[in-house]
Specification:
mainly alpha, two-stranded parallel sheet, 4 strands
C-alpha cells in the first residue's frame, strides 16, 4: 500500500476512534447544552444544513443551533444570536454534534471547513481543490486566523493543507486548535454574528458560517 493510502487509512481509523470516544465522553455536556438551548430558543436544538464534502458530494452538517428563528423582533444574525449561542460559538461547543459527521465518514477531525453549497460554482479551479479531501471539524485556516483571514488567505490555506497533509500536520493542527479555542480570537467579524458571504475568487471578504 502506498504511503499516502496508508496514512489515509490510519487517519480514518483515528477519526472513527476519537469521534466515537468523544461522543460518549461529551454526552452529558451535549445533553446539558440541548436543555439550555431548548429553554432559551425552543426547538429544534440542532442546526442542520447541506454542505459539500469530499469531491463536492453534499451531506447534512449537524451542529447546535445558536440563533433564534428570524421574526419582526430578531431580524439580523447579530440580533438572532442568543447569549447561550454566543458562548457556544466562542468556546466551539456548538461543534460537538459534528462528531457524528466524522463518525459517519462525511468529515474528518482535520481538513478544510465545509462551507456553503452555493459557494461551489464561485471557487476558482485552484480553490476547488479544497474538496480533494474530507472537510474537517478544524483545519489549517482555523488555527491560522479563522475568520480574521480574507477569503483568499483562507482558501489558499485550505489548498496548502491538501498538498501538505500528513498525520504529523494533523496532530499539529489539533494541538494548535486547543490554543485557538482558548484564545477565542477570530470567531466573528466585527458587527456580525456570522461573516460576509463569499462572492467569488478574488473577493476580499472574510469567512462565513464558521
Amino acid at each position: 500500500m502506498p504511503a499516502s493510502e496508508r496514512d489515509d487509512a490510519v487517519k480514518r481509523a483515528l477519526d472513527v476512534a476519537v469521534s466515537a470516544v468523544g461522543l460518549v465522553v461529551t454526552l452529558p455536556v451535549q445533553l446539558a447544552i440541548a436543555v439550555a438551548l431548548w429553554a432559551v430558543q425552543g426547538r429544534p436544538v440542532l442546526f442542520r444544513q447541506p454542505r459539500p464534502g469530499l469531491h463536492g458530494e453534499v451531506f447534512e452538517l449537524v451542529k447546535f443551533r445558536t440563533m433564534r428563528e428570524p421574526d419582526a423582533t430578531y431580524v439580523t444574525d447579530a440580533e438572532r444570536l442568543t447569549r447561550v449561542g454566543r458562548f457556544l460559538r466562542s468556546t466551539s461547543l456548538d461543534e460537538l454534534p459534528t462528531l457524528w459527521n466524522v463518525l459517519r465518514g462525511e468529515m474528518s477531525l482535520v481538513g478544510p471547513r465545509p462551507l456553503l453549497v452555493e459557494y461551489l460554482p464561485r471557487y476558482s479551479p485552484e480553490q476547488a481543490r479544497r474538496h480533494d479531501v474530507r472537510p474537517g471539524v478544524t483545519g489549517l485556516a482555523q488555527v491560522s486566523g479563522r475568520n480574521g483571514l480574507s477569503w483568499d488567505e483562507k482558501l489558499a490555506l485550505d489548498v496548502q493543507y491538501v498538498d501538505r497533509r500528513s498525520l504529523g500536520l494533523d496532530l499539529s493542527i489539533l494541538l494548535r486548535t486547543v490554543a485557538a479555542v482558548a484564545s477565542r480570537r477570530g470567531i466573528t467579524q466585527d458587527g456580525h454574528a456570522t461573516m460576509q458571504p463569499f462572492q467569488g475568487s478574488g473577493a476580499r471578504t472574510v469567512a462565513d458560517h464558521d
